[in-house]
Amino acid sequence: MLKLVDLNVHYGGIHALRGVDMEIPDGKIISLIGANGAGKSTTLKAIIGLVAKSAGSVEFDGKDITKMDTINIVKSGIILCPEGRRVFPDLTVSENLLIGAYTRKDKDAIKKDKAWVYELFPRLLEREWQMAGTLSGGEQQMLAVGRALMGRPKLLMMDEPSLGLAPLIVKSIFEIIKEINRSGVNVLLIEQNAKAALEISDYAYVLETGKVVLQGPGKELIVNEKVRSAYLGEAKNK
Question: HSE of 55 in the Cβ direction (CA atoms, 13 Å)?
């Protein structure tokens, strides 16, 4: 479905991504883990065209999208749910969701997708006409995910969906991610909560200073000594 080959990104004199190779096959949840500054968010931004690529290629559904602009990448089926939620605070829940469908013209299907989002997140239906800025952090995250789904993604890229949320809400968000994937949406996930991400991932990549240093099935990486020590907060002798 998505293939990155030798992807490089520079920010001025900073070499942020250094030859990243990655594949996201159809039907899977793929995680990207690593420390702050490793290049995880830059990878997502490069895929969707928000930062310039200095070398390498991005292929989606067999088509080269390396030089495509962001709006056409979104139309092709890649949607980014950004870090920090970034809901429109002075618009209602309903209005925020409809903004997610701004590239679409199929009104009946948009209505059905909105109903599906409310099934996934019943709390959003309860607050349909509430201003997004008055929602709790967890509700705003639900809204950000719902808004992304309104674009009808083939690939949903999620940047830190659990950041700053209470443990109960985090558990709910990860259950929803699995449900989204079961519905046919592929997921590329960045998550500081590496343990939770690896538990639901079919496959994962570990980034360090802009390079992929480790990769494998989520269940294998979660017991990998290096991953446990560096990203799961466990001592090497455990």
Answer: 10
Round to whole Å and give the CA distance between 20 and 43: 8
Q: Distance (Å, rounded) from C-alpha 157 to C-alpha 45?
A: 10
Q: In the block, which residue shows the tokens 């139309």? A: 75
| Ordered structural domains, the chain, with CATH | 1-77+155-161+186-238 (3.40.50.300), 81-152 (no CATH)
Give CA–CA dist 115/90, Å, rounded: 22
Distance (Å, rounded) from C-alpha 174 to C-alpha 99?
24
Quick check: pTM over 0.85? yes
| Crossing angle of helices 167-182 and 137-149, rounded to 10° | 10
**Contact partners, residue 51, CB within 8 Å, separation at least 6:** 9, 11, 42, 45
Mean pLDDT of 182-211: 94
User: What tens digit of pLDDT does each residue of 67-123 get?
Assistant: 999 999 999 999 999 887 889 999 999 999 999 999 888 999 999 999 999 999 999
Q: Tell me which residue has tokens 């605070």.
A: 89
- Contact residues for 104 (Cβ-Cβ < 8 A; gap 6+): 110, 151, 152
Query: E strands, the chain, where?
Result: 2-11, 14-24, 29-33, 55-60, 63-64, 78-81, 155-159, 186-190, 203-208, 211-216
